[in-house]
């Protein structure tokens, strides 16, 4: 029971009475719990999630419910890739930031050797559309086309995004990787190649 006699979000969505010991009550007892549970019910089904939560230790249920909710929302936004598409975008961002960091370190080292002001290197960076750009050579970057990356929130409806990271990615984009292991090997080889 969610407390104060009101049903939890799951029971509210399922239009049933929330009983004491309801498996969903501890995880969907907030105001928007029924909205979040609707995504879970649509993607996984209430009985499947209930069975999953029952078989987990009490200490793991909260994190499992959050993870299931996140994956359900991602799967609704992108039925093919789900949250994997967001993981690919974040891995791509890590690669790009590592390349930028390496470039700045090289530039700072050269400035130090030449005796010039290392702060001038930082002044060469500019911001366009809220995204940091630099004069990094193209071969040091693995690019995501600019039209496929912007920033927003998960709740914006038609935008395909993840609220916890404030990043929006066009999920209709075709990734050149068949699975996460292949992407990881590309990222690893890039890092070790530098």
UniProtKB/TrEMBL annotation:
One of its GO terms (cellular component) is nucleus. InterPro entries: LOB (IPR004883). GO terms for biological process: hormone-mediated signaling pathway; positive regulation of DNA-templated transcription. It holds the Pfam family LOB. Residues 6-108 form the LOB domain. PANTHER family: LOB DOMAIN CONTAINING PROTEIN, LOB DOMAIN-CONTAINING PROTEIN 16. Belongs to the LOB domain-containing protein family. This is LOB domain-containing protein 29-like. It comes from Prunus avium (Cherry).
């Amino acid at each position: 029971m969610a407390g104060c006699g009101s049903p939890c979000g799951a029971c509210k969505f399922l239009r049933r009475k929330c009983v004491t010991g309801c498996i969903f009550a501890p995880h969907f007892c907030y105001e928007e719990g029924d909205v979040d549970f609707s995504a879970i019910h649509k993607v996984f089904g209430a009985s499947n999630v209930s069975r999953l939560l029952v078989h987990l230790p009490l200490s793991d249920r909260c994190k499992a419910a959050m993870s299931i909710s996140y994956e359900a929302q991602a799967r609704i936004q992108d039925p093919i890739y789900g949250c994997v598409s967001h993981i690919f975008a974040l891995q791509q961002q890590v690669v790009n930031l590592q390349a930028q960091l390496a470039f700045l370190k090289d530039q700072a080292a050269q400035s130090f050797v030449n005796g010039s002001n290392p702060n001038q290197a930082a002044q060469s960076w500019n911001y366009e559309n809220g995204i940091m750009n630099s004069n990094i050579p193209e071969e040091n970057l693995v690019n995501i086309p600019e039209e496929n990356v912007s920033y927003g929130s998960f709740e914006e409806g038609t935008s395909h995004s993840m609220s916890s990271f404030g990043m929006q990615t066009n999920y209709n984009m075709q990734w050149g990787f068949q699975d996460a292991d292949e992407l990881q090997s590309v990222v690893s080889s890039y890092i070790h190649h530098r």
